[in-house]
Design goal:
Length: 253
């Protein structure tokens, strides 16, 4: 209960921050996007990672106003980078199941795109495979409306849930993000290598891009490149950083 109050006050006191992790096109090495990752910086004390407060935010429903803040902030950031003349970046935002099921998600996104003046086709929403599969029929309908607005859609943590391929085929999604648990041992574990290899082939057969998460070294990147993976993110390029970190990364490349 105390933690719930603290979360509520964190919103009022503007204690949330967005960090951004670069996403790189494997073929060209160009930074083509960033994933927005939420942090809580209390006035006193160390920064708190999302795993330590998002579960509670989901239980209490606070994820809805927090998620609204995340979306609004990410849209405004994208617009601000565009105005500053940075190369175009797709900004990806994570949605929890609860936000995804919220009745006015489509209206909210439409309003935010209009109000911030951001580019809808440079906004991507990441929904986990598990959240989608809670109600695939509803998901298809929401995806169709978002896709019509030009918003990009990605299935996050792919491989950790149980997707029905029949549904996946009907989703107007743009990409699959391979969960970092499969990438970690890609160069040593033949099962993980086989899984990643097949996910890339499957995605490409459905005209989807594949993003590998959690890339930490050159050998993992080499494997992914050899298997035609499209994009990657991970500590090998950069950990999540504040907006200024993205700006200096782009200037130094
Ligand atoms: O940034 P970090 O690697 O600690 O993120 C941990 C988890 O928190 C990831 O699964 C990520 O998807 C989730 N997460 C990060 N930011 C957000 C957010 O803004 N909204 C939601 N719903 N989840 C987020
Ligand atoms: O579930 P989602 O993919 O949205 O979460 C991304 C999470 O993965 C964030 O918490 C981010 O900090 C973390 N992450 C990003 N890159 C790496 C990496 O190279 N290695 C590890 N171990 N974690 C990473
Ligand atoms: Mn994600
Ligand atoms: Na993920």
């Amino acid at each position: 209960l105390r933690m719930e109050g603290a979360l509520r006050r964190a919103l009022e006191r503007d204690e949330f921050r967005l960090y951004y992790q670069p996403q790189v096109d494997i073929a060209t090495g160009a930074v083509i996007g960033v994933e927005a990752l939420l942090r809580w910086q209390p006035q006193l004390g160390p920064m708190i990672a999302p795993d330590d407060f998002i579960p509670l935010a989901e239980q209490t429903g606070l994820i809805v106003p927090i998620g609204d803040w995340v979306l609004a902030t990410a849209c405004a950031q994208q617009k601000s980078w565009r105005d500053a003349g940075l190369p175009p970046l797709t900004v990806s935002v994570n949605l929890s199941a609860r936000q995804f099921q919220h009745r006015d998600l489509v209206g909210l996104v439409a309003r935010l795109v209009r109000d911030t003046g951001c580019d809808a086709s440079s906004l991507a929403l990441e929904i986990t495979e598990t959240a989608v599969m809670e109600n695939p029929q509803a998901a298809v309908a929401i995806f169709r409306q978002l896709s019509k607005m030009g918003v990009r859609l990605a299935i996050d943590d792919f491989g950790t849930g149980y997707s029905s391929l029949a549904y996946l085929k009907r989703f107007p999604i743009d990409s699959l993000k391979i969960d970092r648990s499969f990438v970690r041992d890609i160069t040593d574990d033949t099962d993980d290598a086989a899984i990643v290899h097949s996910v890339i082939a499957l995605a490409h057969s459905m005209k989807l891009k594949v993003v590998a998460e959690g890339v930490e070294d050159a050998r993992q990147l080499q494997f992914l490149r050899e298997h035609g993976c499209d994009q990657m993110q991970g500590y090998y390029i950069s950990k999540p950083v504040p907006p200024a970190g993205i700006e200096s990364l782009l200037q130094n490349r």
